[in-house]
Amino acid sequence: MKKQTLNYSDLTKKELEFLKNNYVKQKVLSMSIEELKEFVTENIDNQIKNTIGHEEELEAWVEMKNFFEEE
To answer: Which pLDDT value is given to residue 33?
Structure first.
């Protein structure tokens, strides 16, 4: 018997949301501490350095300002 493939369009919105949430949860749990640190570093780096537009730059500035005030 041929294995059937599943396409996202076969799922309801609720099922797709559940699958996405489950994937995120399982992906994070499967990562080592080092992988998590690399992932977070890359995401924060992209968030701060690749801000586009005035609103995003202000958000990044406030985030950095708050962080350094706490330090």
So the answer is: 97
Answer for the pair 6, 19: CB distance below 8 angstroms, yes or no: no
- Give CA 39 to chain center in angstroms: 9
Whose tokens are 């994070």? That residue is 28
The encoded tokens of residue 65 equal 């300002």
Q: How far is CA 44 from the centre of its chain?
A: 10
Task: Judge whether 59 and 71 are in contact, CB under 8 Å.
Answer: no
Residue pair 51/57 in contact by the 8 Å Cβ criterion: yes
Residue 36 contacts by C-beta under 8 Å, 6 or more apart in sequence? Answer: 28
Mean pLDDT by 10 residues, the chain (71 residues): 74 90 93 96 87 78 84 72
Q: How many CB atoms lie within 10 A of CB 16?
A: 13
